[in-house]
From TrEMBL:
Any matching Pfam family: C1q
Chief localisation class: secreted
Domain C1q per the UniProt entry, residue ranges: 77-209
InterPro entries: C1q_dom, Collagen/C1q_domain, Tumour_necrosis_fac-like_dom
Localization per Swiss-Prot or TrEMBL: Secreted, Extracellular space, Extracellular matrix
Keyword Magnesium: no
Database matches in PROSITE patterns: C1Q
Signal peptide segment: 1-19
Coiled-coil blocks: 43-73
Name this protein carries in UniProt: C1q domain-containing protein
Length: 209
């Protein structure tokens, strides 16, 4: 870049002196003089761009250092790992039930930390945070409806009255330590389990708060 600037300066001077000494000669061309001047300005701009690029590179390097420090930090490494997925293991139809019925997905596919209970069907939040829950409910025939409940309060639900079909829903919830979440079947409704795992309940921690 410096070499280029020097070269430009030399060119400019050469152009100038030629013009001055040969003022009376036809070789003094004002167009060449203008072009040289513009080239000089361009060189300056190029140098400025290169300096800006160097600045950007320095900032990028600093950001990368910060990122790698964050990735190695105890906070990032120590983030609790909480996730589960469960189904009904058998070919079974539950219902029509006569009360609001807490479903127990007794077959665990995954349950890191063990915060979902395949005995009660409840997930219990071990840390305060934002969680994602989803369920899919299959039913062979008749009316199927129910919902996702936090501490006994309905959050999202499903309903349908077609044979052999699935419905699903999901929610992102902020939970306090000890809050519990489960899926319940409404009164007079049905749901079916199957070894193909048609009906599922899953959840995981997105981030602690
Ligand atoms: C659903 O299946 C039942 C038999 O299990 C049948 O009587 C009923 O007509 C079916 N309903 C629909 C909507 O296909
Ligand atoms: C259902 O889950 C069980 C247990 O993980 C698995 O062995 C089986 O292959 C699953 N069935 C289907 C159809 O995915």
């Amino acid at each position: 870049m410096e070499n280029f600037s020097v070269m430009m300066a030399v060119c400019l001077l050469a152009g100038l002196s030629e013009c001055q000494t040969g003022a009376t000669q036809p070789s003094c061309n004002p167009l060449i003089y203008t072009v040289l001047k513009e080239l000089g300005a361009l060189g300056e701009k190029l140098a400025a761009t290169a300096r800006a690029l160097e600045e950007t590179n320095k900032r990028l390097e600093a950001s990368e250092k910060k990122l790698s420090a964050l990735e190695n930090s105890a906070e990032y490494q120590g983030r609790p790992r909480i996730a589960f997925s469960a189904t009904f293991s058998t070919d079974v139809t539950i219902g029509p039930v006569t009360v609001l019925y807490a479903l127990v997905y007794n077959h665990v596919l995954f349950n890191t930390g063990g915060h979902y209970s395949p005995v009660t069907g409840y997930f219990t939040a071990p840390v305060q945070g934002v969680y994602y829950f989803t369920f899919t409910s299959f039913c062979w025939s008749g009316s199927s409806g129910g919902g996702l409940y936090r501490n006994g309060n309905s959050i999202v639900s499903w309903y349908g009255n077609l044979n052999s079909s699935s419905r699903s829903n999901s929610a992102i919830l902020q939970l306090q330590v000890g809050d519990h979440v489960n899926v319940r079947l409404w009164e007079n409704q049905k749901i079916s389990g199957h070894p193909n795992n048609y009906s599922t309940f899953s959840g995981f921690l997105i981030f602690p708060v």
